[in-house]
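User: Could you write out the 3D structure of this protein bound to FE2/S2 (inorganic) cluster? I've included everything you need below.
Assistant: Certainly. Input first, then the structure.
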Amino acid sequence: MSNPTANFKQVNHSVTKVDARQLALGKPSYVDDFRPPNALVVKMLWSPHAHARIVSMDVSEAEKMPGVKAVLWHGNVPRIPHATAGQGFPEPSPYDTFMFDTKVRFVGDRVAAVAAETEEQALAALECIKVEYEKLQPVFTIDEAMAEGAPIIHDEPDAYVPIPIPYEPQKNLVARVGAEVGDFEKGMKEADFTFDDTYETPYAQHCPIEPYVSLAQLDSAGRIVITTSTQVPFHCRRIVAQILDVPVQKIRVIKPRIGGGFGSKQEVLLEDVVAMFALRTGRPCIWRFTREENFRTGRTRHPIRVRIRLGAKKDGTITAIGMDCWNNTGAYGGHGLTVVSCCGSKVLPLYRCENIHFLGKVYYTNLPCGGAYRGFGATQAFFAFESSMDKMAEALGMDPVRFRQMNHIRSGEGSPIFAALGEGKEGVPMTVGSNALAECIVRGAEEIGWSNRTDWREKTGRYRRGMGMACLMQGSSIPHIDMGGASIKINEDGSFNLLVGATDLGTGSDTVLAQIAAEELCTTTDKMIVYSSDTDMTPFDVGAYASSTTYLSGEAVRKAAADAKRQILHTGAEMLGLAEKDVLCKDAHVQTPDGKQKVSYGDIACYALYQKNQYQIIGTASHVTGKSPPPFAAHYTEIEVDTWTGNIKVLRYVSTIDCGTAINPALCEGQTEGGTLNGISYALTEEYLFNENGRMMNANFTDYHIFSMRDAPRIKAIIVPSYEDTGPFGAKSVSEICINGPAPAIANAIYNATGARLYEFPFTPEKVLNAIRAVQA
Amino acid sequence: MMKNPQTVTFTLNGERKTFITRPDEKLLDLLRREGYKGTKFGCGQGTCGACTVLMDGRAIYSCLLYSMQAENRDIRTIESIGTHDKPSEFQQELIAAGAVQCGYCIPGMIMSAEALMKAEKTYPEEVVREYMDGNLCRCTGYEKIWDALQTVLARREAANKAKAKS
Ligand code: FES
Ligand code: FES
């Protein structure tokens, strides 16, 4: 087969990111850059208690404070159950949230909000709000949540889940999902070696450098215009309409440039409040989280306990895989079910096995709320699963790489898990198309020098080096649920307006989509004026999540461009006096195959707009996928353990990635490097520390350490191409998968260095040291 | 609204200017209020670097500095670095390397690099890391930012050497 990528002129090239220059120059681009001078400042009174009932509340004094224009609390807003998670509709998350409630469920829950002329005035007014709480017994762990007679966190009668899935709030159970393939118990019995281990993963925050921020104002027609740092503008519009009980028609959501999201902004956390204040006051209202609020009240990665049972025969055949997950979703249930589903669906298909058991349960606690976070459950589950794979390889006396090579899924193979596990409903049967995992494994091993790896028992001395690896997969969009739309129209000079609902949150998707449009239209990417995500202007798109933008929205863009191209060909042929079948598009012209007769796109646009048989050349298309083709990756690392202090230093890290065609290789590398470093930082340092009242104690960058340039090891990203027939120009997805590797790869490297196996991260010096001492004892 | 307005006078991007301010206003807030939107808020606690500006050539966190402390000083913001037609060398390299992802950290990075290039003649890795350590980026893994910076620094170091010889 000839290489289809060889002829690409726009895609598969590292063209300049369309917004790079304006951002490097510091031009106004982000929500807060558009704050009008007369904007009121919003501040929130947060719950100091993890679990309490509000017995009484008096805001009258606050209302009279200088500069205060409005106060919102449960006494003066509609009580409408909803989910803040920005997902498809109806959402697979419980409607367990109210704009303001008479109960608070975690330290950082909403109590009352003030809009005032200045921040100082708003803060002063908050201090005048009198609240009497009746403290309730809090629930801080999954075990407490599951216990017989546990306090009920959501005892309100009006909470419900809008789709038919199990929801038992009286047991603190948010969701339950399972899948059985073959006969798991039989598979365990057939095995020569079995393992049964339980792993724990910590809370973490996405830490976009731009915190959550939303601005609402009324336009001249009285409509509410919300400019917000969101990954899901269309879901945001729908959810705000629901919460405020106003028609969708009354709301416009604009997404400007976003200062990073990583899943945290797939949530409607501020927009309802600023919109309500704008309605009440008639003034622009802005609310920006402090960094502390971003940690405490912003969304987090769900901490998950993962039990892995694994059985294999002496020859390396895996006979049984069991995965049980207990997901702590915190005080509200958003993304709880879907995250735990992805623990199974994005992990279990990676290795062939006929007997699989999966069970995921999601529980409420009185702690911060889990949400969507890059990797989305797969990150947590891969830590457990890839650790157990290494344990099994050692029991078999096999090289961990060899064991994975024997068992990983191949192109043309399916997994019953694809059909069994969806997101809120059953999945979709699927066979894997493109798959370069085998090559990823080999390339990564070469790069790190895997053949030099030695057994931990041969290592001595204070500083010991170890190598570890992990194999990974993810998905690309949610099949038969996600939808993306695009439209594209031509201008007189042959430039195009590309309008997409897909939401560039800093990932570079505007650029990638422009490249796809330009490739299809036989023009250059610099001719594309991309406008992304404005609910008044652009077609619908579910937004930026589930690794869907390139694969799903990209195909919508390609189809829209193909639609426009048909029209261009039609008019071009008419201008040349030729039949459509006798002309083609090339280098922004319609021409005869020999190039002797041709007419430029600019002239075609002028002809169509001004001269004859006039019409607007405009292409529009939508796309829904029937598949979620997995990207694959193999990660390798070499680390050094200080066996005296337990300190870990990542010396080198290699991230290979099969994302299909890399539409923009430089941006793909950037995604891979960034996601990998986030994963390393998560594995080594990031965690939430709570006091006995459930209050997060390290809500700042000094005590919650994310990696800086000095901490960062060199990361080598290696793109290993494949061609996914169902994706635009062969593309799959890239952004999420890379964050899943560091925790298991480093855990396996720690073992290889010291013989100490860690079942919980972050791998802090204390934990590492304890594990080493246990080995030495 | 502002009782007893107070003023502060400093050189901003080469022009001497006077602004109304309050004793408790931070330089970051003053700058943004006055339309210098390239300087960003990331934490307000001196821990992320998004608000980095130059004061008398040194990189500082403008979220920590009271506006009055800028009195008679020389303040430079990202607005003084590069234009659409002629971005600075580092901006150019960042753009070319694909180092600008969400871009929120980038103006701060650029200001720290400016401080580095102003103060140092040679650029050993440890010194560069020291200067850039206060600027967090959550998107890029620093790889492409690092590469872009190294390209510029290598060029400058060569030029500095050549100058020293001649
Ligand atoms: S905003 Fe100043 S250091 Fe973060
Ligand atoms: S590019 Fe997003 S924080 Fe650096």
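The longest helix of chain A spans residues 549-576.
User: Perfect, thank you.
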